[in-house]
Specification:
Number of helices: 2
Helix content: 10-25%
Strand content: 25-35%
Structural class: alpha+beta
Distance between the termini: 67 Å
Order of helices and strands: HEEEEEHEEEEEEEE
Radius of gyration: 19 Å
Strand order of the largest sheet: 3-13-12-8-9
Number of domains: 1
CATH topology: Immunoglobulin-like
CATH architecture: Sandwich
Largest sheet: 5 strands, mixed
CATH class: Mainly Beta
Length: 190
């Protein structure tokens, strides 16, 4: 009796966890069953930087975005990269309806002491209307070389690609954060 009761309680806990995760999932499925990227609220103009690297005066592709412990360079940005992303892995789904894949090539350099990690930096896409789209919203295998999650020693760099699903025809910009405590810097991808 005690073992059966324990198994019933365990099953109820697992069902509760599954229901809680499903209820808090920020993605919604479209008619084809493909998840649509979760879009964060629009970026407030008052929260944007002023001067070089601001939304009004973004840096060009190739410029270094320098933080306290990291330097991030956007080496390239390929819009309409859906064919490239789909060819990267048979597991990659087509983008949601109304979206296309874009590939961003980055170099992350750790300039701090001790050890760092590429995941302590961020690169997001800001749509024309200010919505924020992150690579986490796009579950795909990036074309090689994929940036991935890499540990970094002082002055070590890693180059690689990330994928974002952007609205078809959108002419937004990138927002790069060179470290967890760093300010966002805007980069004009074209």
């Amino acid at each position: 009796m005690g073992t059966a009761l324990a198994l019933i309680i365990l099953a109820l806990i697992i069902v509760g966890i599954v229901i809680a995760v499903a209820a808090t999932n920020p993605r919604t499925g479209d008619s084809a069953g493909v998840a649509t990227p979760a879009v964060a609220p629009a970026v407030s103009p008052s929260a944007r930087r002023v001067g070089a690297g601001s939304a009004a005066t973004p840096l060009p592709v190739g410029a270094d975005v320098v933080g306290e412990d990291y330097t991030v360079s956007v080496n390239g940005f390929e819009r309409d990269a859906t064919a490239t992303v789909l060819a990267a892995s048979p597991l990659n789904p087509p983008p949601p309806t109304g979206f296309e894949y874009a590939v961003v090539n980055l170099t992350v350099t750790y300039t701090g002491d001790g050890s760092g990690h590429s995941s302590f930096t961020a690169c997001q896409y800001i749509t024309d209307d200010g919505a924020v789209i992150t690579p986490v919203d796009t579950v795909t295998v990036a074309p090689e070389p994929a940036l991935g999650l890499r540990a970094l020693t002082p002055h070590a760099s890693v180059d690689g690609n990330i994928v974002v699903a952007i609205p078809d025809g959108d002419r937004g910009m990138l927002r790069v954060r060179p470290g967890t405590d760093a300010d966002h810097v805007y980069v004009e991808p074209d």
